[in-house]
Design goal:
about 35% helix; about 20% strand
């Protein structure tokens, strides 16, 4: 279970319910992480929005994360980690 974003490259798939992506990126930076707009092989964590988690067809980011063994966390877990 992920408890920190420190020194992690983090990206988001889907729209977050509580905040805009730019605000989420600011929280990632405040936690010592490095927000990414695109998923790459250097990505450590992919945050999956609640809407995307329920979707039948997953985004390209989700599929790449699965293929590259990137750790995925839920939107709720992200809020728990950053205290939002």
């Amino acid at each position: 279970m992920i408890t920190t974003l420190t020194n992690c490259n983090v990206t988001i798939t889907g729209g977050l319910k509580k905040m805009k992506r730019k605000d989420a990126f600011a929280l990632i930076r405040a936690e010592g992480g490095f927000p990414q707009k695109k998923i790459t092989k250097s990505t450590n964590i992919l945050i999956i929005s609640d809407d995307q988690a329920k979707a039948i067809h997953h985004t390209d980011k989700f599929e790449k994360a699965d293929r590259w063994f990137v750790e995925t966390i839920s939107e709720a877990d992200f809020y728990r980690i950053v205290g939002a």
